[in-house]
Design a protein that fits this description.
Elements: E1 3-7, E2 10-12, E3 18-25, E4 33-39, E5 46-51, E6 58-60, E7 68-73, E8 78-83, E9 92-99, E10 105-107, E11 111-115
């Protein structure tokens, strides 16, 4: 059973940066598409970024382009989301996910990011 644990959330001022981490256990990261969703208070969960298992291509939501960078370290079985120029609108719980070849999705429990002065 694959397990994902997010870390790195917290309170940051507008314009600041955070790096989220997602540690994966119970499986090898190479075999999964992996990425991040977020859910703001009162809003639906939305995709932020992901990395393709097959070719390593990265994808970003329009709101994340130019500010966020996703990366993976297969040796550490960890995925990162570097978030720069954070805005209050980025306040949300950020969830890491991994999708296997059968399209089954595993989720972490989330880490809260609050952007506020």
């Amino acid at each position: 059973q694959l397990q994902l644990v997010e870390s790195g959330g917290g309170l940051v001022q507008p314009g600041g940066s955070l790096r989220l981490s997602c540690g994966v256990s119970g499986g090898t990261l190479d075999y999964y598409d992996i990425g991040w969703f977020r859910q703001a208070p009162g809003a639906e969960r939305e995709g932020v970024s992901c990395i393709s298992r097959s070719d390593g291509k990265t994808y970003y939501a329009d709101s994340a382009k130019g500010r966020f960078t996703i990366s993976r370290d297969n040796a550490k079985n960890t995925v990162y989301l570097q978030m720069n120029s954070l805005e209050p609108e980025d306040t949300a719980v950020y969830y890491c996910y991994a999708r296997n070849i059968n399209a089954y999705v595993y989720w972490g429990k989330g880490t809260l990011v609050t952007v506020s002065s």
